[in-house]
């Protein structure tokens, strides 16, 4: 049976590099690019098809920042496929990022300098906004839209005899102290990205608790620091080009400067061929690149506890109910 793989945010950056690498590994897969912009998705599909002419590559329109769009996209997936073997939840945003230069300079002269480069902790703030669904945009895009997608296509993912994998692109920037269960959408603070990635880590643990017995396994990946549209929103491309020699130098001290989308996709690709029984529910699988440019995967225990993960999961179930009522009032 040909494996079905769905990738959100597949038209650029890490998502696109993952698609390219998946097809190079196994061009018998049925690959579906789940993207919000059909033109950009079609361009990506054509680029992938030109290097893999015999591959089965399709597109589905899903804007994970809109519940209506997720419901429509999920309906199309259910019409098209009987099951989904690998669901990569990769789409993500970091809107209006700002660097705190004071923290950067202070960090440079502290003993935490390596960790600062690896995680970006304390260096960035973002400006979030509220979506048409009435949710914080970063939370809805990075977490809730994907959560709704899983719920909608649950029958395609849950099969005890043939388990499926859900794989989240999280981040080393996920931080417990940026997240609060009383403000899990992060409407109050300025670190919505960090908060959303921590929520991703908590949610993945909860999904494993609730769905492993039904044949669905969730894992979390950190791609490292990668040059993509997301990082070009933090500093312009010419600046990153300018400091590239410094980045290669930093690579000698931290393996998290993966830099290219190809390298960043390493752990995502690695998980594709893992047996579900071998996965650790609480591990974050990191794409790593050595000073000499060699790629490998390292797993680290996540800083999450079961109680917080349960509480967040219950809150998401409640929010799901509310939003579904709002969108389809006849279901009241
Ligand atoms: N770059 C890095 O250093 C790191 C990135 N990550 C994570 O990796 C993931 C991929 O990002 P990256 O490749 O870097 O950045 P890109 O901006 O290149 O890719 C993000 C992808 O997500 C899509 N996307 C954004 N918003 C939505 C939406 N509402 N609905 C559907 N798709 C959407 C984008 O589509 P469109 O083209 O239409 O905008 C794009 O395809 C993200 O989750 C990010 O948080 C994690 C750690 C480090
Ligand atoms: C000399 C040099 C490399 C300067 C750049 C300083 C900062 C802009 C970066 C240092 C660590 C980076 C980092 C990210 C963004 C850019 C930095 C803060 C991320 C937060 C980007 C998105 C992620 O998901 C994780 C990254 C961690 C490291």
UniProtKB/TrEMBL annotation:
A Pfam family it matches: adh_short
Leading EC class: oxidoreductase
Family indicated by similarity: Belongs to the short-chain dehydrogenases/reductases (SDR) family. ERG27 subfamily.
Entry annotated with the keyword Zinc: no
Gene Ontology terms: cellular component: endoplasmic reticulum membrane
Name under which the protein is recorded: 3-keto-steroid reductase/17-beta-hydroxysteroid dehydrogenase 7
Catalysed conversion reaction: a 3beta-hydroxysteroid + NADP(+) = a 3-oxosteroid + NADPH + H(+); 5alpha-androstane-3beta,17beta-diol + NADP(+) = 17beta-hydroxy-5alpha-androstan-3-one + NADPH + H(+); 3-dehydro-4alpha-methylzymosterol + NADPH + H(+) = 4alpha-methylzymosterol + NADP(+); 5alpha-cholest-8-en-3-one + NADPH + H(+) = 5alpha-cholest-8-en-3beta-ol + NADP(+)
GO annotation, biological process: cholesterol biosynthetic process; estrogen biosynthetic process
Subcellular location per the Swiss-Prot or TrEMBL entry: Endoplasmic reticulum membrane
Catalytic activity, EC: 1.1.1.210, 1.1.1.270, 1.1.1.62
GO molecular function: 3-beta-hydroxysteroid 3-dehydrogenase (NADP+) activity; 5-alpha-androstane-3-beta,17-beta-diol dehydrogenase (NADP+) activity; estradiol 17-beta-dehydrogenase [NAD(P)+] activity
Superkingdom of origin: Eukaryota
Membrane found in the keyword field: yes
Keywords associated with the record: Endoplasmic reticulum, Glycoprotein, Lipid biosynthesis, Lipid metabolism, Membrane, NAD, NADP, Oxidoreductase, Steroid biosynthesis, Transmembrane, Transmembrane helix
Assembly with partners or alone: Binds to the short form of prolactin receptor.
Bilayer disposition of the protein: Single-pass membrane protein
Matching PANTHER family: 3-KETO-STEROID REDUCTASE (PTHR44442), 3-KETO-STEROID REDUCTASE_17-BETA-HYDROXYSTEROID DEHYDROGENASE 7 (PTHR44442:SF1)
Membrane-crossing residue ranges in chain numbering: 230-250
Pathway membership, UniProt: Steroid biosynthesis; zymosterol biosynthesis; zymosterol from lanosterol: step 5/6; Steroid biosynthesis; estrogen biosynthesis
């Amino acid at each position: 049976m040909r494996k079905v793989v769905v990738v959100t945010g597949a038209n650029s950056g890490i998502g696109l590099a993952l698609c390219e690498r998946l097809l190079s590994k196994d061009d018998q897969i049925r690959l579906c690019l789940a993207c919000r912009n059909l033109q950009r998705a079609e361009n990506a599909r054509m680029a992938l098809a030109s290097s893999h002419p015999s591959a089965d590559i399709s597109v589905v329109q899903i804007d994970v920042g809109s519940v209506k769009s997720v419901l429509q996209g999920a309906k199309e997936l259910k019409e098209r496929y009987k099951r989904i073997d690998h669901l990569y939840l990769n789409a993500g945003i970091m809107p209006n990022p700002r660097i705190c230069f004071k923290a950067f300079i202070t960090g440079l002269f502290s003993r935490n300098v390596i960790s600062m480069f690896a995680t970006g902790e304390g260096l960035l703030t973002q400006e979030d906004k509220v979506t048409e669904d009435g949710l914080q945009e970063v939370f809805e895009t990075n977490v809730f839209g994907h959560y709704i997608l899983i719920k909608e296509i649950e029958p395609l993912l849950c099969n005890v005899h043939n388990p499926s994998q859900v794989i989240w692109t999280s981040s080393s920037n996920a931080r417990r102290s940026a997240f609060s269960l009383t403000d899990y959408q992060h409407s109050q603070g300025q670190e919505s990205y960090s908060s959303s990635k921590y929520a991703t880590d908590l949610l993945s643990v909860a999904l494993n608790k609730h769905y492993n017995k039904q044949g669905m396994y969730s894992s979390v990946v950190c791609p490292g620091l990668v040059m993509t549209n997301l990082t070009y929103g933090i500093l312009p491309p010419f600046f990153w080009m300018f400091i590239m020699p410094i980045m290669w130098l930093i690579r000698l001290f931290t393996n998290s400067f993966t830099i290219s989308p190809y390298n960043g996709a390493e752990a995502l690709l690695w998980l594709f061929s893992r047996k579900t029984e071998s996965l650790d529910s609480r591990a974050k699988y990191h794409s790593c690149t050595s000073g000499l440019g060699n790629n490998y995967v390292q797993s680290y225990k996540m800083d999450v506890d079961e109680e917080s993960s349960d509480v967040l999961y219950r809150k998401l179930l409640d929010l799901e109910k509310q939003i579904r009522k709002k969108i389809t009032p006849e279901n009241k």
